[in-house]
Structures are given as structure tokens and as C-alpha cells.
Amino acid sequence: xxLHLIDTLxxxxxxxxxxxxxELFDSPTLVRIEGEKNPPLFVSIMLHGNEYSGLLIMQEILxxxxxxxxxxxxxxxxxxxxxxxxxxxxxRTLDGELDFNRAWPGTxxxxxxxxxxxxxxxxxxxxxxxxxxxxxxxxxxxxxxxxCISVVNEPNKYLASYFNHIAMVFKTPKGVSTMAxxxxxPAMTLECSTPGNRPAIERAVELIDDLMHLDHFPHxxxxxxxxxxxxxxxxxxxxxxxxxxxxxxxxxxxxTITAGFDRHNFSELMAGEVFARTAVPRPFTVRSSDGEDxxxxxxxxxxxxxxxxxxxxxxxxxxxxRIIRQDCLCYLMEDYRG
Length: 338
Ligand SMILES: [Zn+2]
Known about the structure:
Elements: E1 4-6, H1 21-24, E2 29-33, E3 35-45, H2 53-64, E4 66-67, E5 70-71, E6 73-81, H3 84-89, H4 113-126, E7 132-137, E8 146-149, H5 154-163, E9 166-169, E10 187-191, H6 198-213, E11 228-238, E12 244-246, E13 255-257, E14 276-278, E15 284-288, H7 295-298, E16 299-302, E17 305-308, E18 313-315, H8 321-326, E19 330-335
Parallel strand pairs: 1-2, 3-6, 3-7, 7-10, 8-9, 9-11, 12-13
Antiparallel strand pairs: 2-6, 4-5, 8-10, 11-15, 11-19, 13-14, 14-17, 16-17, 18-19
Helix pairs in contact: 2-6
The structure holds zinc ion (ZN).
């Protein structure tokens, strides 16, 4: 997999649909566009091929600053267009390849072509400093838009609060883009709700435009009521070899998850509230953020009824079975305590 490095964007980029992006860029592409101010802002889009809001957001930003043949940006920009092959197939990640958002410095998967590609990207973008790094994503379930930060400091809190009043603090999984910038510059993952969701796109465009103009991050600490920070306590995955489905679906499964489970996104799931039924003893695996199996301390199973032992906040719930298998059913959050 070769990195394609360019300093002019083809005109067609501003109009192209995500599934056609490979017609423009045959491989992952890093674009450098000079602007008035430096250091540059780094934005990555489509690290997950089917999460196309990032493309729409950057098209909108670039359209605002079109000038003659090129762009008159207030600040220089590095734009990384990630998994063009998965985008063509309408997939998050191709089968058998390393997820583009698990391949950044800190990843345990060191022997992978995607990791070498990302190392090349990091080499270019960090050579002369960065103003901030944003990684644009979508969710598959009913989530509001929100930011994810891996370090709680004033610039990151400012970034997060500008996007929404709730944000997530995360330390795992390792190899996520945003964590690679912990010691380099302010950084945030923008979860822009479902692909194409307008309110999320508009908010992200305003945030990026703001960063284009901003001279420096505010020195004044952010008032605490401006931002609710939650952190990941655990990841809830379906255990390997367990067949699963949803209550409103035909068929017999080892594990049946309540219909419309995604209504619990970013709201409390109370201790004792049954959210699944199981015919096997250990249908789920729950892992703490450092990877420890904490299934038995988090879940209670009584006569096949599955519930939480303590009240937690599910987030990033997906109902897409392929993604549940590849990734997880959801994260379980609690208020960030620092
Ligand atoms: Zn994503």
C-alpha cells in the first residue's frame, strides 16, 4: 500500500461521492495545502471507508476558501484521505486488513502495511509542528455528535466543548489516531453521528473553520459546566462463537439483545434493567480499558436475563451485526473523574 502525496487537489474532489473517491485517488492520499498561518491543521477523513461525513465536511470547508485555481486558506492544512479501498466497497475496513484507526503510533499491531503507511503520514505531518489534529468519523447507531479526547487538558476541552456539551475521554483501544498526538498538539476524534447527518456536519464545519482562524487556544480555563466528560469503563463484545440477534428479528440465537437497544445511547442504563436474554452461560465479554476481562463484575445473569450490576452509560451502540462482530456492541461509560 503506497502513500500518495500531493500539494494540489483535483477540482473534482469538491464534488465527488465517497464511493467514487478511488477514481481520484487510487491509494491513501496525503494532501498539503498552504495557507496564511502555520503550523498546519491536520484532518483525517475516511480512516473508516464508509464514514463519509468527513468528506462532506472538508468539501464544504474547501469550497468556502476556493480562490482561482486553488484555495486561500487562513491556515495551512494537511488532509489525509484514508481507506479509499474500503470506501469503494462501502465498508469500514476490508476483511483481513488492519483497521486504519488502529494503526497509529502506540498500536500493538506493528507488522502491518497499514502501520507502515501511517508511519509515513506521521513523518510528513509532524516534521514542522501541528496546530491541532482532527479525525472525522461516523457512528452506525443513534448517537449524538460528540468529541473523543485522550488527554484532558484545556485545549482539548476547548475543542470538545466547541463540538458538543458532552465528550468522551478514552485511553483504549491502542493505535487510534487521536492518541498519536497526545504529546504533539491538541487532538480530537469527531464522532459525527450517522453518515450524512446534517447537524453534525454543520457543527464540524464551524469547528474546523474556527480553527482555521484561531491564533492560539484560549488561555482561560473552560468553565466546568460547559462540558460533561464521560470516560469509558468497559467495552461490551459478544463472546466468540456465540450466535446473536435482536428481539425483533426472526430466528433462534444463543443471545437475544433487546429491540431498539440504541435508544440507551448516552443515557443511563440502570443496574438490574434486563437488556438481553441468553441461552449460554457467558454470552458477552466485558473488558476494562486496559484489556482485563471484567465480565463477572459488570454483568449479572439470572435465569438467562442479562443486566448491569451498576448503572453505566452505553455509548456508540451499533445494531450492525458485522460491526458488532468486528468491533463491539457498545462502550460502557461513567462520568470522568480524572
Ligand atoms: Zn470510524
